[in-house]
Structure to design on (207 residues):
């Protein structure tokens, strides 16, 4: 069973994907980390984020599930990842790796921004997770504060709106819901509420 979960930043898709993966005993891939890891590699090497050749080389050198997440989180890395993700050759490189992960015999849960539309259009279950920009900014601010990082709500909200615009209007694999995706608005839901709602989208025989 392949479960594809898409949505904008801080919508709750990553937490939901991990819970579904645990529930069904499936491997999980946070595809956003691939772009963050690519950007991190470029920064560490002193390369420009928009250098396509260097970015592709960095993407090809990634191990899909072996990341130091502490170095990949945070607002700055999110911005850097968004720049790298706009490079078509990087997206093509990472898309192939993501498809390979999804096609494991047991299936997988993948979350990102183009899983149901580009990476796994054949997924058994597609969920598009949303939440209001204000709720997402509040969640991100709490997350950053929990890591003792600067958490300026107004700046975070502006950043989220900019990223939403960039992700939804880019020419390659824009952020959008697949026609057959289930919509899940988590604005008023906690983690357990979102999980319970998502389970209802899985066919009864597979729960």
């Amino acid at each position: 069973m392949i479960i594809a979960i898409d949505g904008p930043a801080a919508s709750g898709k990553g937490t939901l994907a991990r819970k579904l993966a645990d529930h069904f005993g499936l491997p999980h891939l946070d595809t956003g980390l691939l772009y963050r890891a690519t950007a991190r590699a470029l920064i560490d090497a002193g390369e420009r984020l928009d250098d396509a050749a260097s970015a592709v080389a960095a993407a090809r050198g990634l191990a899909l599930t072996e990341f130091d997440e502490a170095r990949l989180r945070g607002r700055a890395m999110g911005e850097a990842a968004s720049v790298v993700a706009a490079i078509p050759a990087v997206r093509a490189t990472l898309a192939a790796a993501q498809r390979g992960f999804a096609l494991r015999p047991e299936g997988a849960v993948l979350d990102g921004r183009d899983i149901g539309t580009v990476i796994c259009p054949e997924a058994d279950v597609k969920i598009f997770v949303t939440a209001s920009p204000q709720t997402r900014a509040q969640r991100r601010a709490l997350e950053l504060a929990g890591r003792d990082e600067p958490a300026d709500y107004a700046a975070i909200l502006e950043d989220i709106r900019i990223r939403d615009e960039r992700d939804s209007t880019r020419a390659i694999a824009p952020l959008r819901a697949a026609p057959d995706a289930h919509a899940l608005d988590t604005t008023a839901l906690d983690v357990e509420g979102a999980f319970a709602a998502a389970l209802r989208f899985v066919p009864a025989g597979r729960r």
Observations:
- The first helix runs from residue 13 to 24.
- The chain has a mean pLDDT of 93.
- The chain is about 55% helix and 10% strand.
- The radius of gyration is 16 Å.
